Amino acid sequence: MEFIDTHCHLDAAEYAADRDAVVQAARDAGVSQIVVPAIGRENFGVVADLDLRYPGCHHALGIHPMVVDRAQDSDIAELDAQLALGRAIAVGEIGLDFFVDGYDRVRQEWFFAEQLKLARKYELPVLLHIRRAQDTILKHLRRIPVPGGIAHAFNGSRQQADAFIALGFKLGFGGSLTYPRALRIREHAAKLPLEAIVLETDGPDIPPEFAAGGRNDPGNLPRIAAVLAGLRDLPLGSLAVATTANARTVLARLADLPPCHANR
Predict the structure, then answer these.
(1) Whole-angstrom Cα Rg for the chain
(2) Assigned domain for 261 exists
(3) Is residue 150 within 8 Å of residue 7, measured between CB atoms?
(4) H-type helices in the chain, by residue range?
(5) What is the dihedral of CA 171, 193, 89, 19, to 10 degrees?
(6) Do the domain assignments include residue 263?
(7) Domain of 201?
(8) How many distinct structural domains can be found in the chain?
(9) Looking at residue 92, which CATH number applies to its domain?
């Protein structure tokens, strides 16, 4: 079985001591491709270098809403220049976060809109960070259409889910769905159209229940997928085929890049 982790911060410091082993464990578990999004200008080069170091790893470039307070307006021009190189498979991680107090919403929205314009310019999908901002995100997406993307760690309403799907987006599900108390996420995971769902870990964050309190690794993805398969009453193999195809549909450049399978 083959899986794609559509959102993993493999460059994070939590992986510094054993990154090679983490990637190999993911390959051994059947994770053939890992999408590594940037969060700001300071790690554009770092995530791009992971492509070269680890076959099957592919990067996205963007400025995260929770770093825009320390970002410079000129970072948009640098992002433009990096996207022009043609190596990134998406623009991300970008979006809006209205959950945490103290962040400048106006500045968040300016950076988000400018990055949507770049995604449109380079015909790239976007990887969306969304917390308590679904409707505002949708407003911007309708104003600045892009070639779809992924609503990462989706936790909105069914109506909002349908709106994202109508705009060409897939919805990312990961470790949160393994917790029995995550009722809305589990309901979405069980009932949304299968063609709208992709898998992700968000490693090292959002560990699944079976790794609660620890680091989340991309190698956890098949066990997360098994929980999702159970919620949908599907064979795990069928879920793997569908979600892998979904990822390569919405992140079109993935289909043209070689996956990396476990060493045999």
Answers:
(1) 17
(2) no
(3) yes
(4) 19-29, 44-53, 75-83, 105-122, 134-143, 158-166, 183-191, 221-232, 236-250
(5) 60
(6) no
(7) 3-256
(8) 1
(9) 3.20.20.140
